[in-house]
Design a protein that fits this description.
Layout lengths: L7 E5 L10 H9 L4 E3 L7 H15 L4 E7 L1 H8 L6 E9 L8 H6 L15 E4 L11 E4 L4 H5 L5 H9 L4 E2 H5 L13 E6 L7 H11 L2 E5 L5 H4 L1 H17 L1
Parallel strand pairs: 1-2, 1-3, 3-4, 4-8, 8-9
Antiparallel strand pairs: 5-6, 6-7
Helix pairs in contact: 1-10, 2-3
Length: 249
């Protein structure tokens, strides 16, 4: 494929992270000659965040697109792609691939193993209330810094994990708890799924269940929730496989 025939690759980060979590993957894909764009994800709520991704893709791209997302970003591409005819493939990276009525929180807790599934959320989260009159759903959540390595980045060096913990992008409780509504794009689009085998946010079994339900091509690796940083080459290859499939179809 020449650069002019390759699809645009749009990457969407998840909660408690930002576009820098895709830095190694972005660099690898750019070396492969792809146009790579990092979509905004405000982490404020499912409806508004999905619209932010959809508006970005609609206005920042031309030609076919592969949407790839990590974690909560999977909820957004599942909704946004349904209204974007230029999106030809989906890639989920340790990501939520919800069906109608499912939220990130319910999917994390559907099967045993998530370290976020605790009776008292204050044991794993720090909360910040931006305004005195804000509703409960507007609390910003952060993974506790001293638990970030265990929960989010177990196989990464602690020095790297500490930097990531310090720079978390907060997610509102509403964003995580609001159910996806509508027909998920994975029902009509081909999808690929990278499973992190030591993910402590979305248990491996739950990732595989979502991937099987979506009919995704699955690749796995010995990676924590931040698999793009732990296994950037494998993740990049999976995205390239999805991109290549577009040109063959």
């Amino acid at each position: 494929m020449t650069s002019s025939t390759k699809p645009t690759l749009v990457l969407v980060h998840g909660a408690w992270a930002d576009s820098a979590s895709f830095a190694a993957v972005t660099a690898t894909l750019q070396l492969e000659g792809y146009n790579v764009l990092l979509a905004p994800n405000p982490l404020r709520g499912v409806e508004s965040d999905t619209k932010a991704v959809s508006d970005f893709v609609a206005q920042a791209t031309s030609g076919p697109v592969v949407l790839a997302a990590h974690s909560y970003g999977g909820v957004l591409i599942t909704g946004a792609a349904a209204a974007l005819p230029q999106v030809k493939a989906l890639v989920y990276i340790d990501a939520y691939a919800p069906d109608d009525g499912e939220s990130a929180t319910t999917l994390s807790n559907a099967l045993p193993g998530s370290l976020l599934n605790v009776p008292d959320p204050t044991t794993v989260f720090d909360f910040v209330l931006p305004a005195a009159d804000a509703p409960q759903g507007d609390y910003d959540s952060y993974i506790k810094r001293d638990k970030f390595h265990e929960i989010f980045a177990e196989t990464l060096p602690k020095t790297e994990s500490n930097l990531l913990a310090a720079g978390q992008a907060p997610a509102t409780l509403a964003a995580l708890g609001t159910p996806f509504t509508g027909t998920p794009a994975w029902k009509s689009l081909p999808s690929w799924y990278f499973v992190g085998r030591v993910d402590r946010v979305i248990p491996e079994a739950q990732q595989r269940a979502m991937a099987e339900r979506a009919g995704s091509v699955v690749v796995d690796g010995h990676a924590p929730h931040l698999s793009m940083l732990a296994e950037p080459v494998k993740v990049s290859r999976l995205i390239v496989e999805a991109a290549t499939s577009i040109t063959r179809s």
